[in-house]
Each structure stands twice: as C-alpha cells, then as structure tokens.
Amino acid sequence: MNAPITTPVAGKAAPEIYRHSTDVQILCTRARSLARAIDTAADEALGEESPELRRRALSLIVDFASMIEREAEDAIAKAERIEILSRAIKPVAEEEQ
C-alpha cells in the first residue's frame, strides 16, 4: 500500500509541482490558440490577391510560430522542473514504506 507522502520535502515540492503543472497546461492552451491563429492567417494569405496583404498574413504566421516556440520552451522547462521535483519525492516515499 502506498501511504501518502507527508515529509517536509514532499510538502514543499507538491505545491510547486502543482503550480508548474498548471503552468504547462496554460502554455499548451496558448500554443493551441496560436496554432489556430496560424491556420486563420494561412487561410487569409492564400485568399489574398494583394501582395502586401499576403505578406502581412505571412508575417503574422512567422510571428505566431515564434510565439509557439517560446511557449514550448517554457513548457519544456516547467516539465523538466516537475521531473526533478518528482525524483526528489520518490526516494523519500520509498524510505517511508
């Protein structure tokens, strides 16, 4: 049976893990919204006859792609932190059993 983790390490790590998990969810939601914006901008770019408006739409696509990249980098950093915190809790939980 796995007993709840009640050590000081777990007590300090759990809120941080939760916070990072929530942040990862928010970052992924933002990335999904940006992907939808890219889809819309691509439709506009393909439908435009004016070279200037097509360039603007394509520029938006590039900007949105850069934003997705930043969101992904932030999500990866937070996920790595969650992994580190989880590893710190696991040995403590095993010692308690």
Mean pLDDT: 85
Estimate the strand proportion. under 5%
The major beta sheet can be summarized as: none
Contiguous low-pLDDT stretches (5 residues minimum) are 1-6
Order of helices and strands: HH
Total strand segments: 0
Helical/strand content category: mainly alpha
Helix count from the secondary structure assignment: 2
Gyration radius from CA atoms, angstroms: 21 Å
Helix % is: over 70%
Question: What is the rounded distance between the termini?
Answer: 9 Å
The outline comes out as rod-shaped
Task: Please characterize this protein's 3D structure.
The protein has 97 residues and is mainly α. 89% of the residues lie in helices and 0% in strands. The protein has 2 helices and no strands. The protein has helices at 8-47, 51-96. Helix 1 runs antiparallel to helix 2 (51-96). The chain starts with 7 loop residues before the first helix and ends with a helix.
